[in-house]
Amino acid sequence: MYKKSLAFAINRSSKKPIFEQLCEFIRGQACAGEFSEGMKLPSTRRLAEELGVARSTVISAYEQLTAEGYIKSRRGSGYILCSIGSIELISEKQKNSEQESLSKPCPPPQILPLTPGMPDMSLFPYRQWARTVARLSRTKPESMFIGSCSLGNVNLREAIAAHVREWRGIDASWQQVIITAGATDALNICFRTLARAGCSVGIEDPCYYPVLNAAESLGLKPVFLDIGKDGTELPSCNSSPSLVILTPSHQYPLGGAMSPKRRLEYIKWAETNSAWIIEDDYDSEFRYSGRPIPALAGFDSLRRTIYIGSFSKIFSNTLRLGYIVAPMNLVNSMKITMENYSLKAGLMPQCQQQLNFDPLFW
Fold first, then answer.
1. What pLDDT, in 10s, does the model give residues 311-335?
2. pLDDT-based confidence at residue 177 (cuts at 50, 70, 90)
3. What total of structural domains would you count in the chain?
4. C-alpha atoms less than 13 angstroms from C-alpha of 20 in its C-beta half-sphere
5. What global pTM score does this model have?
6. Which residue range(s) make up the domain with 49?
């Protein structure tokens, strides 16, 4: 039961909005065990008066924390803290450097009515896009023909690193960003880098079918993970997959976000079992109100989590533009995977046999 005021002070000199400061404070206290499960938070009106802010500021903070699973509201009882668990967050992070990635757009898929994941391309700003391309052709025509490093255009990687830092809570450098031909290509690169035929891979049940198809096409053995009230259940002790694919921000197709407690449990599971988590940040960009729910990779500080994002639904599904944000110690391995895959994809079957390449892996 709540008995005293929150020991929270607004930093008026910070550029961070007040509701975000309040969110960070409550998250930090909950994860550190300072706030216990079931603790009642002060009412929005009372806390607004104590802080000297508008009540809407406190309401925004509480609604964001409710969406993230830290607190919940009960009619007539206000807001109470949910169970977070006692797993300690890992903050250590390694840094290094590298570069490169190249991709080819595929023909646009046939769009049927009510097809999920397909944006309404009639709303695309075609004229503005054409003017931008024309301006680039006039001012820097050589840039359209000179290739960049194989992990992708540096300017684009820097922009994506800034975007995920601001909107997804992932503190990564641009060297950790790899540009891919969409999220499916990113998933294939992760599979080829982290697993070999016969390895077990944890997949949500139900799941996004292209994920299952990609795993089975590479000879991986799916271990199906049920969806519970806190999100995807952890693998059982006897299944022990070497990696899992999760959609913690918006589970497809059931919806819902993974609770903070379950996220921390997955981070601990990956550390304990030397396993990897591939976070498919499906639909995280779509929000009715408030800021996006922080990514699982942000909780993990990119130690055992590989983050996959795409611009297919907010920009264009035919452009096939996606990206990976990887732990620094995996970037080189992924670069080698991409270079080998590109080489083997261009070889005739007899050359593959002569060089002893197994197409199943590539």
1. 877 777 677 788 999 999 999 999 9
2. very high
3. 2
4. 14
5. 0.69
6. 18-81
